[in-house]
Design a protein that fits this description.
The chain is an alpha/beta fold. The protein is built from four helices and eight strands; from the N terminus they run H-E-H-E-E-E-E-E-E-H-E-H.
C-alpha cells in the first residue's frame, strides 16, 4: 500500500511479474525466483483497466487486427519473448492468455482477469503467481491465496487504499486493527 502516482503498477507489480514469467532475473534480485516456467494471473478492477493498464505495461500496444493481431512488444516483457496470444471474447483488444518464453526453456502462461468477473472467475486452478493491481474485494484476494497454496506461490498487490480501512486493508495491518502497533 502506498501513495498515488509513485510507480507501484509499473515499477513494482509489472516489473516483478515480467521477471517471474520470463525467468530473466537480474543478478542483484533479492526476491523470490522461479526456476521453471510459471502459470500466473494478472488482474485489475475492470476488463478495460486490465487492458489499458496492466496489459499495456506488460506487453505494449495492440497492433493489427483479426488473425494478425499482436502486441508491439514495447512493454516490460520483451517482444521476442511473447508467444501465442488467445484473445478474450466480448472485450476489444484484451488478451485472455499470453504465452511468454522462459529463459531456461518452455513457456510461462499469463492469464488476464478482472474483479468485475467476480470471485468465481478466480476459482479452480493452481497458480504460481498472481498480481492484483488495485484493491480487490477480500473474497477475491482470499481466493487468490488459495490458488497459490499448493504451489507455494506468490500473491502481490499494488494499490493505494482509496476506500479506507477495508477488510482487505485490515488483512495487512498488525492484529487487523489500525493503530495497534506490532503484531
Amino acid at each position: 500500500m502506498a501513495a498515488n502516482r509513485i510507480g507501484k503498477t509499473e515499477g513494482a507489480g509489472g516489473y516483478e511479474t515480467a521477471l517471474h514469467v520470463t525467468g530473466d532475473y537480474p543478478i542483484w534480485w533479492p526476491g523470490a525466483q522461479f526456476i521453471d516456467p510459471v502459470k500466473g494471473w494478472v488482474a485489475g478492477k475492470t476488463n478495460e483497466t486490465t487492458r489499458d493498464i496492466i496489459q499495456a505495461k506488460l506487453f505494449g500496444e495492440v497492433k493489427g487486427s483479426g488473425p494478425s493481431k499482436r502486441f508491439s512488444g514495447t512493454g516490460l516483457i520483451p517482444g521476442d519473448a511473447i508467444g501465442e496470444i488467445t484473445w478474450k471474447r466480448g472485450v476489444s483488444d484484451l488478451a485472455d492468455t499470453v504465452k511468454v518464453a522462459y529463459k531456461s526453456g518452455g513457456w510461462s502462461t499469463v492469464g488476464l482477469k478482472s474483479y468485475q468477473q467476480g470471485r468465481g472467475a478466480f476459482e479452480g486452478t493452481e497458480q504460481d503467481l498472481i498480481w492484483l493491481d488495485e484493491e480487490p474485494e477480500f473474497a477475491i484476494y482470499a481466493e487468490c491465496l488459495i490458488r497459490t497454496m499448493t504451489t507455494d506461490g506468490l500473491v502481490y498487490m499494488t494499490f493505494t487504499p482509496l476506500e479506507g480501512v477495508t477488510e482487505t486493508v485490515l488483512a495487512f495491518l498488525p492484529k487487523g486493527v489500525p493503530g495497534m502497533g506490532d503484531a
